[in-house]
Amino acid sequence: MFPPSLIPGLATVRALALAAGVLATALPAAAHPHAHTHGHMDLAVAIDAQTVTLALEGPLDGFLGFERAPRNDAERKRVADMVARLKAADGLFQPDAAAGCRLQKVELDSAVLGLRGAHGHGHDHDGKAEHADIAVDIVFTCTRAAQARFIDAKPLFEAYPRLRSIDVQVAAPQKQFRRTLGPRAARLDLAGR
């Protein structure tokens, strides 16, 4: 197990992506970093010697089918199930076994749900928003992170069929690139092919 001080946070992931120029060449998402499109999410991936860090962000609708505080027991259960499933992120994102990765940390941030991660960037300040996002920061510690050839997100798409696409920006030691994942192309090839 690695000490928390060695684990990069979302700010580090975003800084790596910015430093790599990935965001500078990004699509309209760079011009509209919080574009709210149902069924779509953005994912930043940073890989270094011992960590694979994922920063996922997008509308709550993709996970819950609604984007506000839960109004009844069924919706509260749906939120609790989502939180539990996202906290077990190694069941949704599966790095190549060759990298020897293990889930280290997951932080969730959604103001409308009262989830406060390290970023606190929820947009709902009065609890009445009808369109709200969630941010999920995931850190894997790995014995050989650079040997990861892929990250499989198929379980994520299977668990949340409302998700239709994820724009991915990768910052790795040797290259930076972008990809779009979907239910039929859910494996992120880290070779950048």
UniProtKB/TrEMBL annotation:
Q: What is the lineage of its organism?
A: Bacteria, Pseudomonadati, Pseudomonadota, Betaproteobacteria, Burkholderiales
Q: Which UniProt keywords are given for this protein, alphabetically ordered?
A: Signal
Q: What is this protein called?
A: DUF2796 domain-containing protein
Q: Show which residues constitute the signal peptide.
A: 1-31
Which source organism does the UniProt entry give?
Comamonas endophytica
InterPro entries membership? ZrgA-like
